[in-house]
Amino acid sequence: MKKILLPLFLLCPLFLSANDTSGTVLPTGNIQFNKQDGIKMSVEALRIRQGEVEVNYLFENTTDKDITTQVFFPLPKQDFIRPYMDDYFHDHAFNFKLWVNGEEQKYEYKISIYQQYNDGDTVYDNRDITEHVWPVLKDKIKTPDSIITEGRLDDILSALPETQIKALAEQKFITYDFFYEDSDDEQSKGKKWQSAGKWNKAVTFYWEQTFPAGKTVWVKHTYTPASFGNSVGAPNNDCMEYQSKNFEEYDKFITAQRKKYGMDGNEGYFYFGVDDYMEYILTTANNWQGGIGSFNLMVESAAGAVGCLNNEPFMIDKAFFARNLKNFSPQGNIGVEYIYGQNATGEIIPGAVDVPRKLPDGSYQLYRVGGPANVRAKPVNGKVTGKLADKTYAWAKETTGTEGWYFVVQNNVSGYTFKDNLITVFEQK
Question: What is the pTM (predicted TM-score) of this model?
């Protein structure tokens, strides 16, 4: 029995990723998402730190037949054509890697191109133009990381036969207009061929996968997410729109951070800025049988972050944000943006570490609790501050000087538990 499946990790336009999900590749090369019965996403462990995403899944085949599928992992759309290159827009190395049951696997990738266009008469929102423009570009784009400047695009288009250029222009894929060679708008270099409207690209990694009857398959991805920042200090997350109740929570958090770093006056326009926004699409998980059995999120931060999970805001004052949700059918996606302080002269505020930030060695991993486990304020004989139920999941890591004890977090419970209470979830077979 053969179907085509998609991963549920989507990076939205500008930048994170999505979860595996079921779908079909159409003859046009487009992907149509389908409901997939027979395969359950029993466990998902999504760990996000600045510059790194790791996600582990346990997929369970609940049928008595093997299911062979083509699995897709789509990354978010991002800018494909830029007037010029700068610090925010440049070729980005995704460094995508894949493991199945602990063994690294090969994969292929597909690049799709989408257009946003509005000339007053014609409006295109996310028009798939891949089959029309990719034949022109495919020999010039060597890797999924590539971004192309409008100057380079003009060179490529200008070398085409006149009939082909005319056909592309008539369909409003390209236009002949002013082009600025760099960021100085006064240095116009005349009219050149360029993209009509905005072109985004979407990179999708894929591979063929067999899910044996009645068995569980462990799939792991790691990659470097693309991200961007802004210069206004406002959140990029949709769940924190200006003047909303969620925005009020965000504003209170940022105000507290400014005071923490001694910025409660009018020291600078940037105040406590937002940088490195990332997004991860969860809603495609609903295409699997019963959603996600146990969804586990860990966001690690060195200097603080704000984010949205299922349309609800979360704020990280330091270190981490951890959540465990059972039988989870996502209604929204995840957005994360890391924050840092900057004063009027552009100096980074002491205590708010500049990009890139370095987290302490060692990362949280997901464990299953074996029997009810006490959580203590300190190792060994510390005060009991909480309990973890049998067979639940929790994030934990070994810490220096606490041999035999792990620091563990699950929702609002955090503290130390003895290592024998924890069972490794993802282990090589």
Answer: 0.82
